[in-house]
Amino acid sequence: MSEQKTARPVDHIDFDDNRLVADLSGEHDANLAILENALGVRIDPRGNRFAVSGAGEARARAIRALTALYARLERGEGVGAEDVRAAARLLEDPPAPAKSATVSIKTPKRVISARTPNQAAYLKKLAEHDLTFGVGPAGTGKTYLAVAHAVGLMLSGAVERIILSRPALEAGERIGFLPGDMKEKVDPFLRPLYDALHDMLHTDYVERRITAGDIEIAPVAFMRGRTLARSAVILDEAQNATREQMKMFLTRLGEGAHMAVTGDPSQTDLPDGEVSGLADALAILSDVEGVAVAPFTAADVVRHPLVARIVDAYDAREARNRKTKS
Fold it and tell me: N or C: less crowded end of the chain, CB within 10 Å?
């Protein structure tokens, strides 16, 4: 007698808009393949209906991910591979997604939403505190979301200016030997900040606002002696600021200003023996009223999935080294 195969449990979900369904599936169903690999399910598209088979909780997570991604498309947001991978991670804990999915910032070129629970918590802290530290590995969206928050504040009229800053050239700001005028010397170090702005605002608008002084991008040393009032201020790559630079920068905070400080204390380029201003500030200010700290981990990396595994590998080696030294 032949053995009868047991059918796999299947759930179905229907969507209304054919065009959005095509975008949800991706070219050659690439987005569905990412969800299948991430969640261990099978997703069969049948017109506007998706059949999801697999283990019970995995099916439920896949349904929630598809629903959240379709909602992004309904809001006019794009859905790419990174968004799909992020949706799979964001929905690992069922209570979190409904709250996290509402966290978004609308800019002229795109709507920016939290892709992980830690990103959602970060945006909430940025909105509720005058000084927020975003701390964690590269690729977790610390700077990008801080710039998005700053753009949102300026467009709403909550602040008059955006000021973006970085320590230049491995924190020493030794730029005199480079060719060109001052702008040509420092622009390469500030390019990631320009890129984030241009991703959210039209180029001609950015250039007009820079010319008018409403958007300023400058090395941290240029902040000395100033009071930054009614501004959204960001210090990026803060692990490369010295303690003196960090204290100077933080004390520039003026009336009606919002400040975000981002960096990864484990990646400092400071000379051996020099204490990172970011690590120092976190130790001193973490319990100060009005200051928020938003931590990120490799699970929040929204670049290529290999980046998260690279971060994990380096973290594991550092943990082994610390254990050996102790």
Answer: N
Q: How many other C-beta atoms can be found within 10 angstroms of the C-beta atom of residue 288?
A: 10
Residues 6+ apart with CB under 8 A from 236: 143, 146, 164, 165, 166, 192, 193, 262, 263
Cα 298–299–300 angle (5° rounding)?
Answer: 90
pTM for the structure as a whole: 0.69
Are the C-beta atoms of residues 231 and 163 closer than 8 Å to each other? yes
d(CA 181, CA 176) in angstroms, rounded, equals: 10
- Ranges of H-type helices in the chain: 18-25, 30-39, 56-74, 81-90, 97-101, 117-128, 142-156, 182-200, 203-212, 243-250, 277-285, 305-325
Nearest to 280 by CA among 237, 243, 250, 245: 243
Q: Count CB neighbours of 309 within 10 A.
A: 11
Residue entry with tokens 């799979």: 88
Sheet containing strand 42-46, strands side by side: 10-14, 49-53, 42-46
The total of other beta-carbon atoms located within 10 Å of residue 35's CB is: 26
Q: Which two tokens stand for residue 196?
A: 């984030």
In the numeric block, the tokens 């095509």 are attached to: 22
For the chain, the first-to-last Cα distance in angstroms comes to 64
Per-residue pLDDT of the chain (326 residues; tens, 9 = 90+): 444 444 568 889 999 888 898 999 998 899 999 898 888 899 998 888 999 998 888 888 889 889 989 988 888 888 888 788 878 876 554 444 434 444 688 888 888 888 888 999 999 999 999 999 999 988 899 999 999 999 999 999 999 999 999 886 443 445 554 445 555 656 677 788 889 999 999 999 999 999 999 999 888 888 888 888 999 999 999 999 999 999 999 999 999 999 999 999 888 888 888 889 999 999 999 889 999 999 998 888 876 667 767 877 887 887 788 778 76
